[in-house]
Amino acid sequence: MKLKFYISFIIALISFSINAQDAVFKATVSKNKLGVNQRLRVEFSINKQGADNFKTPKFKNFKVVGGPSQSISESWVNGKASFSQKYTYILQPKRKGEFNLPSASIELDGKVIQSNTVKIIVLDAVELPKDPNDPNYVAQQNIHLVAEISNGGPYVGEGIYVEYRLYVSENVNVYDYAVTEAPQYNGFWNQDIKINGMQVKMGKYNGERYRYVTLQKALLIPTKDGKLTIDPMKMDIIVGVPVGRTDFFGNPITKQLRKEFASARKTIRAKSLPLANKPEDFNGAVGQFSFDVSLSKTALKANESSQITVSVKGEGNLKLFELPQIETPKELEVYQPERKEKVKVTSKGLRGSVTDNYTVVPEYKGKYKIPKVSFSYFNPKEKVYQTITTEDLYVDVLQGKELVTNSDDNAVVKRDVKVTGNNFRYIQNATSFESNKKSDFFKSGLFYALLLLPLISIPIGIFINKKREERAGDVVGNKLRKADRLAKKYLSQAQKQLGNKEAFYEALERALHNYLKAKLGVETSDISREKITQLLQDKKVTQTDIDNFISVLNDCDFARYTPIDNVQMHQEYEKAKQVITQLDKQL
Predict the structure, then answer these.
(1) What domains can you pick out in the chain, each with its CATH number?
(2) Whole-model pTM above 0.85?
(3) Cβ burial, residue 157 (10 Å; 0-12/13-18/19+)
């Protein structure tokens, strides 16, 4: 008796929970857009018991080819009860056009409830398979792998993003999936954008209601202009397709199959930066930036250090250009700058700051000027070049050695002799002679060597000074030597970053680019794989060495999307050293 009481109590509780819900009578369709030779399923459902006297709407522009079929389902999940009573029809449109499916009606507690209307778009006839119920065809029609691009026509250096979404209709289920082929971003600098969990969301695809999940998102920055393609992403998906039958409890029976899906190939048409009003100091920066040069100390003593900070902040291709170089008086000793990057990857591009810190150590007393520095960048939103120029900075060295300067009208200033108690002492008026048996310095070998030394050193000094002036006047040569040192510096940085994949490949790629700047005079913004090949061929470099150089650059691009261990990174580093050595022998 107690068992029957408990069962009756639970049934009553479920019925009370279900009846306590607000009644919702709605119409849903399997697709909102279809060909005139296709079919759709329309479903009218109410979520409350006791409904009766269902009245079929008049499908004026559609032919009823199936139904109505009725089903009832009840469930109790996590303490919540749910109820659904459904009436289902299979319809086929009679002609093309835009139509509204009329409302159905049903009675509940003496009241008539109307369903919503649904808009249907009927298009031209489409090609259908021999068996429209073929599971492969059903899966193909209800699952779509889509690559969405934020901007199809960016400027070179302007960041865009690509987002891969998997759309799944409510007619099928996905049990498992795996990416079999990742997309390739040839012609782009790229970086993955972190996705915080794969959340299932509701959205629309081709006007129809779908569930979707974002699989991958990446920031792309084109490095050359022209037509650039993004190859498809490919996936294997295990799909559950309804077979048109239901089990004992009214749930649809599904058939599982494995099917490959691929996104469409995307084309990006990158625009070259305008030549009109292009500043001479433009170095490839594209975005919206602020620029600042500052001193940590403006007054200091000799041999004390001060920091000169050159910083670019903002949003754009922060990792793809060099910061402006500062010029300092020769009396100030300046060390190679230390690079600091605080950059985040977002869907809008790279955001953060890049800073070069110079250490300055003065030796002589005086006040020295650090000339103003300018920084130019291209703003893709306003489509103009913009230049930021800083103010002159001054370093005041309060204590230190006096700086000796040459003057044409040197004057000799006579000064009075200062007399102290030790200036004049007792003068001896008698001597005692002692014989010196040592050889005389006069007319010795050392005497004649010292005599000829000034005559020899003068032409040597003139020759050295002439070479120094020629080197100082060789602006192009100085720039090439500077870039050469910078390439060696970045290659050493790559060696320090062995084990850190992102930092290692960024430093390695930057070393290769700066080597080209040192040897060929090519700016980073102008570098492309085809141009590198052409320039090296013009320099009579062997095709094998050219292919090896391009291979290292390609490895730097591909390594960001493939698992790399420390052994492979060490091999890439040795390969890069060997490539630069071989090119250097021929260049």
Answers:
(1) 2-123 (2.60.40.10), 135-270 (2.60.40), 287-397 (2.60.40), 477-586 (1.20.120.330)
(2) no
(3) buried
